[in-house]
RNA sequence: GCGGGUGUGGUGGAAUGGCAGACACAACAGACUUAAAAUCUGUCGGGGUUUCCCCGUGCCGGUUCGAGUCCGGCUACCCGCACCA
């Protein structure tokens, strides 16, 4: 009977053109409406979309469209995290300039996004590789520099040989490069750092603000990454020398148990200590061997602890005892002071080390038994062998001993963080040049602001090993010093691309007057982002960096809040047969194929329906078929009722039983879908609620009130619109409606429609369901109780037993407790 | 080792402490059809003496009139951190 078949390609192209031509998705600024910022992490323009992209965008689009219909001004932008190494590697292999391949990729992917019917305000699109954008990335770099948050230092840094560039700590995963999985090695280089450690405390405490809005595990991961420890720094004298050494410890209460002191092999003091020592050569050989070890070998708990005596002795700050100074591989150079006091009796690592090298093990906290220690005792207890502190609880001694040290000026309470400064230099081409100049007489000088951006030169030699590509362009390198006018050299490193993505969400809100990176008023108006949707893989990296940027920009007076993302939705992966889709596994399902075969609406509905957003989604071709079947079912539902849907003077009369039931189903669906999308962000159950309504409409008896049916159909189409915008727009038009569905007001459910005249009670005996009885909704507790007990079924089961208690939950159940 | 999360039919998944398995997928049966597809209808956790009853949400225990849900312990898997003193 249906002449007019559902052809997704036609319907989708039609509506995409209409929306584009009418700027349907431009951001509104109605002062009477609340403002809502819905943001999905912008993609790297890799070439084409994968299913993971389709999933994030589908989720974001449902939220954005729902909020618009729900009476909000919605900012829903899209852009490109466009700098990065793949484009540069592609250039090396195929000779295509990154600027060309990147823009080609962007054009292709933008087109794919449009095919998905995503409601972006394209007028705000940005790409981080555009000079108009990276000018401001450079501006922000200089802001950091002016505020003492960008500095250069020579350090042993993480070097990825495959990418031939350095990496930040966060970008080293299990000793391997986050991007290419090559083993990372240490290299001594002078590099630029951002002083994120200055913000460690605030990055930690502000996590509290995010409770509730962020997944607990992301908060935990950040907390662990920042890794705050409270303890003390204690200064030891060195026997026969003027120098001192300072250790960091979380256990100053065990100070009397120190039997040796250990330095990291890299510690500068080591070289002084071994000068003139007979065993210096051996020590040096040891240091070299440790430094050769990879990051994995060095930091794994499985690695055997090895060390060597330096020939020098430290002086115990309270007892004056001589303590041998060792160096060992288990002491890290860049945590705490790079120097540890060894308390073998109460620290597992020290115990292992002391046992191996036969160093004294002196218990100073009563382990509760007389036997010799076979392992470190790390529990709590009372102090022993600790002079005047004997008998004191160790928790109390912890502060008391620090007090004594403080009075003597040889110790202080302090905290230590695991977070390290952010290494931001990259020896690569396709990134924002660091806007600094090195002058032989003036030192490091910023490029004057009016000369920004420092443009990337087009012609460079990409493939020279061990050289930043920018170094190969003489014209770029040679410049004059802004301060003295003399010949000077530019910085030839570019910035970590995570810097580009640390502020892009601000740029979307407004470009401002050209004196700063974004419009402060607009940014304050829209931010913090109300819903940020992205992958869990950024739990530390991007999310930590962006939080850091926001705090710095706040301190500089550029924004008036301290956290950028109020609420975070981390979507799970799209997997096939339990494995992440990847080219190498050959298990990739391409979005193009799905869109071509079924249309974007089907892809969206399937993805939203198949799993809750934060869980991994198992791809299922049959599931896609099911989603498509559902849309066809909706199509036929409308098509077969055009006459009653077009009669707009048709009044609904829900007085009959069937009509009353359908009206209830309609309003229950409105309630459920509104809550699921608007507050629970559980799109799978929202879709299932719409399916239930559609099923109820199909089951509606012939001849029952048509107006009620029309209302139900119209509602189902509206509720489905955020998930499947094209087909619903077409159906809306087929119904003879002239309004824009996307601009329609979201329906409000009628509480009274949900109230039933009669309620079914479950009657339990000792918690087991034995009977179901229907009562009028106004029946009192007493009536329900007595009638439930009086019922035939219950009476039969009560024979020979006595009623101990009866619980009545109004509107729900009766539980008769018998003995 | 530490921290976090998850365990429910053949599958994806539903269930403010109140009828476990909504909604789908798959499977099976039927209707329509010459036939198929599409569509529609029905069955669909296990077992039994089958109008009814018993068992069942990883395992053991607890709280409660009532536990998938709360508490304690265990176990398996996943994720993060991992010699951070």
From TrEMBL:
Report residues binding ATP.
Answer: 583
Q: What is its main location?
A: cytoplasm
Leucyl-tRNA synthetase editing domain: from which residue to which, for each copy? 223-405
- Gene Ontology CC entries for this record: cytosol
- Please name the GO terms that the record assigns under molecular function: aminoacyl-tRNA deacylase activity; ATP binding; leucine-tRNA ligase activity
Ranges for domain Methionyl/Valyl/Leucyl/Isoleucyl-tRNA synthetase anticodon-binding come to: 662-782
Protein name, entry field: Leucine--tRNA ligase
Q: Which organism is it from?
A: Tumebacillus flagellatus
Lineage summary: Bacteria, Bacillati, Bacillota, Bacilli, Bacillales
Name of the encoding gene? leuS
């Amino acid at each position: 009977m249906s002449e007019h078949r559902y052809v997704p390609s036609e319907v989708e192209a039609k509506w995409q053109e209409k929306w584009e031509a009418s700027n349907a998705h431009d951001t509104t600024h109605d002062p009477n409406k609340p403002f809502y910022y819905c943001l999905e992490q912008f993609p790297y323009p890799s070439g084409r979309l994968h299913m993971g992209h389709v999933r994030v965008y589908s989720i974001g689009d449902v939220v954005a469209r729902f909020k618009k219909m729900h009476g909000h001004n919605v900012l829903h932008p899209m852009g490109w995290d466009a700098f990065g190494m793949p484009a540069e590697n592609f250039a090396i292999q195929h000779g295509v300039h990154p600027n060309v391949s990147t823009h080609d990729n962007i054009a292709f992917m933008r087109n794919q996004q449009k095919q998905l019917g995503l409601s972006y305000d394209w007028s705000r699109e940005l790409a981080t590789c555009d000079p108009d954008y990276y000018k401001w990335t450079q501006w922000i770099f200089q802001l950091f520099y002016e505020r003492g948050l960008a500095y250069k230092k020579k350090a042993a840094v993480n070097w990825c040989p495959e990418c031939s560039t350095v990496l930040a700590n966060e970008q080293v995963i299990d000793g391997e490069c986050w991007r290419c999985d090559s083993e990372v090695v240490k290299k001594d280089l002078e590099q630029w750092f951002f002083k994120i450690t200055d913000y460690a405390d605030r990055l930690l405490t502000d996590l509290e603000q995010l409770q509730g809005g962020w997944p607990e595990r992301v908060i935990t991961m950040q907390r662990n990454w920042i890794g705050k420890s409270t303890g003390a720094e204690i200064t030891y004298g060195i026997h026969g020398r003027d120098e001192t050494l300072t250790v960091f410890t979380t256990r100053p209460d065990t100070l009397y148990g120190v039997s040796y002191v250990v330095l990291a092999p890299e510690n500068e003091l080591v070289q002084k200590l071994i000068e003139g020592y007979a065993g210096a050569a051996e020590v040096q050989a040891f240091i070299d061997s440790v430094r050769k070890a990879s990051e994995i070998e060095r930091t794994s708990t499985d690695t055997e602890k090895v060390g060597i005596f330096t020939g020098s002795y430290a002086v115990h700050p309270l007892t004056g005892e001589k303590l041998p100074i060792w160096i060992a591989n288990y002491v890290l150079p860049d945590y705490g002071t790079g120097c540890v006091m060894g308390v073998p009796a109460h620290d597992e690592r020290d115990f292992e080390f002391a046992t191996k090298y036969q160093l004294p093990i002196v218990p100073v906290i009563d382990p509760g038994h007389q036997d010799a220690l076979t392992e470190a005792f790390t529990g709590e207890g009372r102090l022993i062998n600790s002079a005047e502190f004997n008998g004191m609880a160790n928790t109390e001694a912890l502060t008391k001993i620090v007090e004594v040290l403080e009075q003597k000026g040889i110790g202080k309470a302090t905290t230590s963080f695991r977070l390290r400064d952010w290494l931001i230099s990259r020896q690569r081409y396709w990134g924002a040049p660091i806007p600094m100049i090195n002058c032989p007489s003036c030192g490091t000088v910023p490029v004057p602001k009016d000369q920004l951006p420092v443009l990337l030169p087009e012609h460079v030699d990409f493939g020279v090993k061990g050289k930043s590509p920018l170094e190969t362009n003489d014209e770029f390198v040679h410049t004059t010093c802004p301060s003295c006018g003399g010949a000077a050299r530019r910085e030839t490193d570019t910035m970590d691309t995570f810097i580009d993505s640390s502020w892009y969400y601000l740029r979307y809100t407004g470009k401002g007057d050209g004196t700063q990176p974004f419009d402060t008023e607009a940014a304050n108006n829209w931010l913090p982002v109300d819903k940020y949707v992205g992958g869990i893989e950024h739990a530390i990296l991007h999310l930590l960096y962006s939080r850091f940027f926001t705090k710095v920009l706040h301190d500089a007076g550029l924004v008036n809040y301290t956290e950028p993302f109020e609420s975070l939705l981390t979507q799970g992966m799209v997997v096939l047969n339990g494995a992440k889709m990847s080219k190498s596994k050959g298990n990739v399902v391409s979005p193009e194929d799905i869109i071509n075969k079924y249309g974007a609406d089907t892809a969206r509905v399937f993805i939203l329906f198949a799993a809750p957003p934060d869980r991994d989604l198992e791809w299922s071709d049959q599931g896609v078929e099911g989603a498509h079947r559902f849309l066809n079912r909706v199509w036929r539902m409308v098509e077969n009722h055009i006459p009653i849907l077009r009669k707009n003077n048709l009044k609904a009369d829900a007085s009959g039983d069937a009509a009353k039931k359908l009206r209830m189903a309609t309003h229950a669906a409105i309630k459920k879908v509104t809550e699921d999308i608007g507050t629970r962000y559980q799109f799978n159950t929202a879709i299932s609620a719409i399916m239930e309504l559609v099923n109820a409409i199909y089951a509606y008896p012939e001849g029952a009130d048509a107006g009620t049916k029309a209302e139900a159909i119209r509602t189902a189409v509206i509720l489905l619109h955020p998930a499947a915008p094209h087909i619903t727009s077409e159906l809306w038009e087929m119904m003879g409606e002239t309004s824009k569905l996307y601009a329609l007001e979201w329906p409000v459910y009628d509480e009274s429609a949900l109230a039933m005249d009669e309620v079914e009670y479950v009657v339990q005996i000792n918690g087991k369901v034995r009977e179901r009885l229907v009562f009028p909704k106004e029946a009192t507790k007493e009536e329900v109780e007595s009638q439930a007990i009086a019922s035939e079924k219950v009476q039969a089961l009560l024979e020979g037993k006595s009623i101990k208690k009866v619980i009545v939950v109004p509107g729900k159940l009766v539980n008769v407790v018998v003995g």
